[in-house]
Amino acid sequence: MIEYLTVEDLLALAEDLRVPNGYDLDAPEDDAYDLVIAMSTGSCTCREAAVELAAWARVTSNG
């Protein structure tokens, strides 16, 4: 059974994944595309997406 994200799930995810000041997300374009598709089809959990996004977080030069 595929579990789809609800609006409430997306809002909670957005809160949890807010990038703190001093950080940027540096995601490879193909990988970012794959993550969006995986999230939209339900083949990736919110936790898996958070791990992927955290791996792309980089300290900014002014942070």
Structure description:
By secondary structure, the chain is mainly alpha-helical. 52% of the residues lie in helices and 10% in strands. The protein contains 3 helices and 2 strands. The chain has a two-stranded antiparallel sheet with strand order 1-2. The protein is globular.
Q: How would a crystallographer describe the biggest sheet?
A: 2 strands, antiparallel
Chain-averaged pLDDT: 75
How large is the share of residues in beta strands? 5-15%
Reading side by side through the largest sheet, how are the strands ordered?
1-2
The number of helical elements comes to: 3
Overall radius of gyration: 13 Å
**Share of helix among residues?**
40-55%
